[in-house]
Amino acid sequence: MEGIMDMNQEERREREKMYTCWLCNFPNIGNAQLRRLSESCGGPEGVYHAGMERWGRILNDKQVEALKRYTEQWPLEAKYLEMREEGIELVTISDQDYPERLKNIPDAPYCLFVRGRLPSGDVPAVAVIGARECSEYGRYVARELGTALGRHGVVVVSGMAKGIDGISQEAALDGGGISLGVLGSGVDICYPARNIELYRRLTEGGAVLSTYPLGTPARPQNFPPRNRIVSGLADAVVVIEARARSGTLITVDMALEQGREVYVVPGRVTDRLSDGCNRLIKQGAEVCLSPESFYEEIMQLKESRKENRIKSGNRKALMEEPKYPEKEAAAEANPAEGLPEELQAVYRAIDFYPKTAEEIGQALPEQYRGQMVPYLMRLCMEELILQVSPGHFCRKGEK
């Protein structure tokens, strides 16, 4: 008897999901209207059978006509089975699996399309965001931070974009952790296409998710709303490289509106990729100085939120000595280890900001300066440094 009841409950759940799939794939409706329509009709199945008159109590005439045409053309069961066969789940705001953090943001999305598996809400989560066209320094920081967070079991949330986003997510997976990719397209579309391998890895070691109906292409207007989901899924946001006018700063604004903590990796005042970051620090953002101290801060933040003792303006500063600056990079890891001493010496004299061969030579013992060009070419061949412009070299952020 109990087995039959369980089967019937599962069948009812699947039936409700089938109607939810129909409703959430309708593109001409917002979150608030979705909720009101569903509540007024007793759920998605009720909406399906309600008809135009009842729809008209929530939707305008144009939306009602569009919903009628859409419903007539939508093969209900076939579309749901097709979605499930592609490994895509629907999670609505009333479901137990719906992320608790997201539920509490303004205008929380009614529905999420998910490919993969959402982590438990008890696990700390951090959004790592930044420039698409990042520097080698930015690549290094994103990889170090992503790896450390993944190793400590912190979920890394980002937009799967080129640059800081994708690098940090890939590093989190490499560190044995979990990552969530929030898309500005339908969850069945990998954007950018070049990140298809990361997309695949995310579905296996976390999830990709979207609020947009299946088949929605990646349009520019989709990304600002997408960004609020990125910050909404996290306990805190870390910015690694952002120009003064940057889409990253839109995410920061949304994070602050959602009550999220914002941390920034500082950069040189002469580096335009750090203008946005340095301005955020001036405005009072927290400073992220090392992966380990940042992890400790996040755990304290998570614990204090559990105890409901977060007070605006009373945030502990990070005072630990930095591990990111280029002078100390060799202390954590020595990618040149195993090479001849002269090559290791040249590598140590190079950092993530481009230097000329002459500037590098000034930091070396006299006996190494005469062979600078061969040494630099050998390090380029070893993929430890890059020639970023004629005569200018810097460390490579990723190998």
What is the strand and helix layout of this fold?
Layout: H1 2-24, H2 31-41, H3 44-50, H4 52-55, H5 61-73, H6 76-85, E1 88-92, H7 100-103, E2 111-116, E3 125-130, H8 136-151, E4 155-158, H9 164-174, E5 179-182, H10 196-204, E6 206-210, H11 223-232, E7 236-240, H12 247-257, E8 261-265, H13 275-282, E9 286-287, H14 291-306, H15 329-332, H16 341-348, E10 355-356, H17 357-362, H18 366-369, H19 372-381, E11 385-389, E12 392-395
Parallel strand pairs: 3-4, 3-7, 4-5, 5-6, 7-8, 8-9
Antiparallel strand pairs: 1-2, 2-6, 10-12, 11-12
Helix pairs in contact: 1-3, 1-6, 2-3, 8-9, 11-12, 16-19
Q: What can you see in these coordinates?
A:
The chain has 399 residues and is an alpha/beta fold. The chain folds into three domains: 13-85, Orthogonal Bundle (DNA polymerase, domain 1); 125-306, Rossmann fold, CATH 3.40.50; 326-395, Orthogonal Bundle (Arc Repressor Mutant, subunit A). 46% of the residues lie in helices and 13% in strands. The strands form two sheets. Strands 1-2-6-5-4-3-7-8-9 form a nine-stranded mixed beta sheet, with helices on both faces. Helix 1 (2-24) packs across helix 3 (44-50), helix 2 packs across helix 3 and helix 8 (136-151) packs parallel to helix 9 (164-174). 41% of the residues are buried.
